[in-house]
Specification:
The structure is a homodimer of 365-residue chains. In chain A, helix 7 crosses helix 10, helix 9 crosses helix 10 and helix 15 packs parallel to helix 16. In chain A, helix 14 links the parallel strand 7 and strand 8. Chain A has one domain: TIM Barrel. The N and C termini of chain A lie far apart (44 Å). The first copy, chain A, has 365 residues and is of the alpha/beta class.
Amino acid sequence: MTFPALHNDTFLRACLGQETEHTPVWLMRQAGRYLPEYRALREKAGSFMAMATNVELATEVTIQPLERFPLDAAILFSDILTVPDAMGLGLSFAAGEGPRFARPVQDEAAIAALAVPDMDKLRYVFDAVTSIRRALNGRVPLIGFAGSPWTLACYMVEGHGSKGGAWEKVRALAWSRPELMERLLTVNADAVAQYLNAQIDAGAQAVMLFDSWGGALADGAFQRFSLPWTARTLAQLKRTGADGQTVPRIVFTRGGGLWLRDMAERLQCDVLGVDWRVNLGTARATLQGSGRTLQGNMDPVALLAPPEAIRAEARRVLDSFGRPQAGSAHIFNLGHGVLQPTPPEHIAALVDEVHSHSRALRRQA
Amino acid sequence: MTFPALHNDTFLRACLGQETEHTPVWLMRQAGRYLPEYRALREKAGSFMAMATNVELATEVTIQPLERFPLDAAILFSDILTVPDAMGLGLSFAAGEGPRFARPVQDEAAIAALAVPDMDKLRYVFDAVTSIRRALNGRVPLIGFAGSPWTLACYMVEGHGSKGGAWEKVRALAWSRPELMERLLTVNADAVAQYLNAQIDAGAQAVMLFDSWGGALADGAFQRFSLPWTARTLAQLKRTGADGQTVPRIVFTRGGGLWLRDMAERLQCDVLGVDWRVNLGTARATLQGSGRTLQGNMDPVALLAPPEAIRAEARRVLDSFGRPQAGSAHIFNLGHGVLQPTPPEHIAALVDEVHSHSRALRRQA
């Protein structure tokens, strides 16, 4: 497969710890409901999954934020739950309610019956990756993604999201029947590895694992039920893409700030993403010598404040990391996804400030 | 005011960093819906607030878990939202829905109108404290408590709990109008100080501040909107109780594990409580030399596992702290409140294991 040459490789270079002229910026959920053009397309499509499974619509939605803002990367428009859906759990999104599985995995028999799904069922995702990569036309790199084995298990066992993020059912299963949980996580880890490898083959230039609910686990339990399974996925990933280029691997663990050292020690990845609770200066010191790039971490709620406050906070986040160096790079992002009430012009102010202030930071002695 | 002599002061001594024969244990929400006798009383009373405002019922409910388990402390049965209720916000608890304020505080005028309430409106709480202290008859010490200024602000601005714990409204106000937020927090800090001092006068032998939602804040925002206001409350607290004894001060910040050093530096308190995500060995090292006692932090979900798994996890938590020493003590607790589906006999196994294993730990060389 051949693709157009990449014009802006700032993001990829920062992933690999190389020096860049400015700090690259992209935003989790940059293609989303805060954009009127997204809402229009969503209404036309009828549902989230109708958009995600339609190659043309997924392509258009992925590109939308890039038409407005000079972001340094695009991320595939999809959902982390496509993988358990392909396992036969029956995914749906009820209006205003979040995801739901018709057949959650709650007993020994259901877990025994689980298997890595035929990747052909996820063809619509890989086709979207190729289509988006072509449509980007080398403008910026395309990030593929998947949920972490643990985070997928949360939804698979609970059957839906968790009120308050406590995830009591899946965490109770982990405490009561750890060996069952590990069987489930093995299937997830291998399925996610195949899924990301197929995205890489289809044209993804970087891949990201979202451990959105790793931070719900107790210390000790995180090291048993999240970390080794993310590691198992990472160990199976292809290192180069369809075009022969290195494919950086990003792991984002929401609420995982306390375990950054564990992650650096045990995960074969290039970038660690942190949420808004982490001090970037402290995190950078923790990762010192590991060669890992840090990604994050402005509070998405700060984007509801006036533009001048947003610019000040963007500078504070950049300054808390400090001047990037070879082997210690920074990718600017939010600490979590863009919120629906965010005015698009606030994103414009943010991206502009990150680019200009990070250039200024590099000019300082 | 005079009270019966205290028979078991293990908890108070551990609070003050003194050596004890075993690690004291009590549990957040130890008086709660997991107990059938609690549910019976709650049904009779008709509502949560009917129980909390009735001195006899509040006394009975507080004592209930002590009749079953040899816990080392009792905690006042009440709610953190009594203070904003006394400010006139109109607290109610809809069945299965959590707390709700009829008059949330969402604009400049509402914040300007706030004032420290007349403590006479909270007389029912202070009367309950005195009644419980008498009913305990010196068995174990009684802990009084309040919500932290920030955590009260979360509910006051939002008007109710936050789905998923994001607290977008109050956090957006903090980013957009920090000076308004600080006015609200000033009133809260002073109100909470008066409230805890009145509990101390009424017989509370230790006091605890629950910063349940401090962990929702971004790094930087926590240091601006939570920490200084908790500090302001603590600075106003009486140091001795009605009986002339020192009254230890505990601060529990859910999700605050990353800020333990900030808390030790800025809070005049004796004990820091940590949630289940914190490694107690790491936390102890962070607090080294600060003289602070650590409280926590078993995952409450672990109490849904079989008793043998609970005992193993209790040992793991005790071992992760290690052998307590003068100036570095441990109080065993959960990392959050007891969950409703917890079988009471599981609590019995936990308390027994904490007592026996912590004695064994002290006998080791």
